[in-house]
Amino acid sequence: MLNVGVLGAGHLGKIHLRLLKESKKYKLVGFYDPDTKTGKKVAEEFGYTYFDDLETLIKSVDVVDIVTPTLSHFDCASMAMNHGKHVFIEKPITNTLEEAESLLKLAREKKVKGQVGHVERFNPAFSAVKDSIDNPMFIETHRLAEFNPRGTDVPVVLDLMIHDIDAILSVVKSEVANISASGVSVISNSPDIANARIEFENGCVANLTASRISLKNMRKSRFFQRDAYISVDFLEKKVEVVKMKDAPKQAGEFDMILQNAEGVKKQIYFENPEILPNNAILDELETFADAITGDTEPVVTLEQGTRALRVALQVIDAF
């Protein structure tokens, strides 16, 4: 088991603490929070060991799990790496691209592993179909949330849209060619609703919408590729996979056949991939443990987290 310490005891930090305590791949040593009052309260309520000194906790563990506000990600991660510790960092990886690139360099120098908490990569619906997403040419995503003051210290692009940016970058095997976007501040001082169009060098186009002022929650992505349409509902954990193949010479009574203007006939059929229930946060933490003990590449590398941040910041710059 790997000794792990958690930095940050807020809403998400408490979830990480609970899951790490239950995990068979980690031994939870304790946690740090700069707010002593909060730290002592969480320790008394849940029985976790509270460290009032950040460096003391870092020295006591093999892995540092950073669940602090984005502004402190770089300082926390660089301190951990300088002590030779592996780091799991909640998304976005850092506040600036320069900080992210510095962490990449430091991780290589110190020979430590890092993973970024893009949890939707572990969503069971996405996991069920990601291998079927092959050279998509049009992608549409909607990530809508009801208003919650938590997270409004950053633009909606870094709060919500970055989840879809990372998922798209993981399946589109091409570099970004152009980005256009618009964002509007309604309640917060930073944009609360945004739309972005990302064009890739291979011709793929992704249209992304994110809002944190909606009346209902929605987290859907649709992927269109040659002879296939794949829909992923990240919220309901459901998928739709509609595919086409050359129609048989003798169609069955219930076969769905389409004929285009050129007379080519295609048969429509549906696939129902198995969706295996899971705890996505626990999975991302435990696959990181596997990467450390097996000396393999984490599922969401620091490089991938940096790329997602780079594109997200380009979207913001395009407003």
Automatic annotation (TrEMBL):
GO molecular function: nucleotide binding
Pfam families per record: GFO_IDH_MocA, GFO_IDH_MocA_C3
Ranges where the GFO/IDH/MocA-like oxidoreductase domain occurs: 155-216
Every Gfo/Idh/MocA-like oxidoreductase N-terminal domain range: 2-118
Name of the protein this chain belongs to: Putative dehydrogenase
Species the sequence originates in: Zeaxanthinibacter enoshimensis
